[in-house]
Amino acid sequence: MHIMEGYLPVGWAIFWWIVALPFMVLGLRSLTRITKANPELKLLLALAGAFTFVLSALKMPSVTGSCAHPTGTGLGAVLFGPLAMSVLGSLVLLFQALLLAHGGLTTLGANAFSMAIAGPIAAYWIYNLTMQLTGKQKIAIFLAAALADLLTYIITSVQLALAFPAPVGGFIASFVKFAGIFAITQIPLAISEGLLTVLVWNWLQSYTPQELEILQLIKPLKSEQLSVNSEQ
């Protein structure tokens, strides 16, 4: 759920902007470095951004009148790292706020922190940890995408609980309420996003192996394999 325009108190809106801005600055430096070193990766960057835009724009009804949606940030985080996704994800949120009235400008810092910063950091860490422990890339992709989705909603629940503590029970009671509302729809959505991300990964392996080699995400293919892929 993107936090809508004007929903957060001014102090919290400013706080999350301050927290998110350093990541965006570092992300711009990361994107600049990536595109200068390997200009051929620009299309893959655009694909990662488009994947995030489409998935996070699919608003689905949740309980008590709220809505839920996938995030799509796990794929880009695995491909380019969490700093790059902090910019791509923030741009997605900006366009959604302006064009779809999904989210808002005052709440962009909070939404960016949960979906474009915390989620991608989790995805990147989970992917690398799973690869170290199991060496199974598709399992790592699935877990990275699914758990990044869930963490995004946990962070959003924390943000809302901090801004609106319950009269009885304070932050904890408010967090349990918000997280419980989101969990009903978000857990199956996270699983679905993980499976979809694996399908997209399979497609990338088949049709863009050279780019994945540059990113050191797959081993170099033999020339015979490359010729077969190019003919498909």
The percentage of residues in β strands lies in: under 5%
Strand element count: 2
Major beta sheet, strand line-up: 1-2
Secondary-structure-based class equals mainly alpha
Order of helices and strands: HHEEHHHHHHH
Uncertain runs:
none
Radius of gyration: 18 Å
Function: Part of the energy-coupling factor (ECF) transporter complex CbiMNOQ involved in cobalt import.
Membrane topology: Multi-pass membrane protein
Keywords: Cell membrane, Cobalamin biosynthesis, Cobalt, Cobalt transport, Ion transport, Membrane, Transmembrane, Transmembrane helix, Transport
Protein name: Cobalt transport protein CbiM
Describe the structure.
The protein is mainly alpha-helical. The chain has 9 helices and 2 strands; from the N terminus they run ααββααααααα. The protein has a two-stranded antiparallel ribbon. Strand 1 and strand 2 (67-68) form a beta hairpin. Helix 3 packs across helix 6 (137-163). The longest helix is centred in the C-terminal third of the chain and has 38 residues, at 170-207. The termini are far apart. The model has no long low-confidence stretch (mean pLDDT 89).
Question: What is shown here, in short?
Answer:
By secondary structure, this protein is mainly α.
